[in-house]
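Ticket #4471: structure output looks truncated?

Reporter: J.K.
Steps to reproduce: submitted the chain below (528 residues) through the standard prediction queue, then opened the result file.
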Amino acid sequence: MLAVMQTKSRLLGLAFASADALIEIAEDGTVAFCAGAGPDTDTPLTRWRGRALGQVLGPASRAELNKVLAELTPGVRSAPLSLLFPCSDGRVRRAQLRAFRLPDLAPATSCALTWDGAPFLLDLPETPPLASAQQFLDRAREVLDAPGREGAVDLAFVDVPGLGSAPSPVAERVEATLQTASLDSRSAARISPERYALLRDDGGEDLSALVRSAAAAEGVDLDVRVAEVSFSAGAAPVNALRALRFTIEACLRDGGLVAPERAFGDHLRQTLKEADRFAEMVRTREFELHWQPIVDLSTRTVHHFEGLARFGAGGGPAPIIRMAEELGLVEAFDLAVAEKAVARLRRPGGGTLQVAINASALSLSGDDYVQGLLRMTQTDPSVRRRLMVEVTETAALADLEAANRRLSWLRGAGIRVCIDDFGAGAASFDWLGALKVDMVKIDGAFVKRLDGDPRASTLIAHLAALCASLKVEMVAEMIETEETASLLRDLGVRFGQGWLFGRAQPEPVLRLPEAPTAKRLGLVEAWG
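Returned output as attached by the reporter:
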């Protein structure tokens, strides 16, 4: 009986409003009931059921509609509001909307639509220019990390094969359509001539249909492929949001994926799987440290060993470490590496062994890493004197003053500090100027260039002189030939590391390969 009364009330409302269509909006904002004529014969109102009316309209009209609904007084009809509704063929049709609340249907809101004129082709909307790939990534980070944002957000990759060779008006209309459909009409980007990315409200318009309609309005038939993922902004687990950012970056780097609907989803699932696997590996310490010697280039004696992480079958750490940094997992890993290194220093017979371990710059963004390392070494000062921390510049270090304060805690306890991969990042000289350290390791790319680029020799010579004036030691990595070792020594570099002196081994190897200039093989020098 209640359903019959509600239906009568709805139809009375439709007749009272003298409208072409009646839409009932439930308390959650979705269309719960609709009756009457749609904007065209191929767009029945039943397609709107279960969706928010603002999403049916598109971003341009949402603000006006939401304002009217928010200010609506029960028992009073709103003033007419002129809105544009999309048709199935890319055209739009104008309608006058009046909203009112019937007592029998409270708290639902009824909206009467009266179609005004025939469908027409909408001029290109005035939209902001599409973002670049990096600008889009910044925008995605802003949205993903926005505190208190309500509702879900979709991330969509749109591939439009053939658009690159289509007439320019087609691309202009497609791009304007995508920008208008994006979040706040400013969250779309052009990744390549035929690929776009955008953020938009969850459950919005069918992007494939919108783009095809936009192209059809210019007389062109285009194939459209869309890959989407939906998530709750500000509510998803931190690692899930970081995994999404990591996947976005990967997809932006590879703008020519043939099947984005598979590649994007597969990449995201694989990233989440690898993140879980990495976290478990850190928890169970399921990795090894191999040890590569760093030698004095003049005496060829071993100075210390660098502990290098190895995952499974001798796999290198670089891609995994990058993922760990992006997903916020690297600090726990750095502490696990330190734990293994300290345990090796404490083993019987290791009293003269000296080692360096790597720590991401992200681990210095807070106090936990430094405090954890100091706690695990506090009972044995000799361990601290035989330990060095190499800070890697793979991630940004925003607060150099705070980082220097934390490094001073290590140095004050007797743990030495090295800037790793110097020259690989744009901030290297900022680091050297702001951080008090004991050693600088030249990035291997400079060493590789010594053979054919005289500028590399000049740069290294000047850097060696600078470090000498700062009383900072230098080590060069990736040395593979005697010629390179001799040249670096002559340029003022004291220490060297590379395959010429030995690869990383499961146990420290003191005996170096025979070298013509070797004086004493197998001696481990003191830090001083």
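Triage note (M.O.): checked the attachment and the full token line is present. Residues 1-5, 516-521 have pLDDT under 50 and may be disordered.
Status: closed, working as intended.
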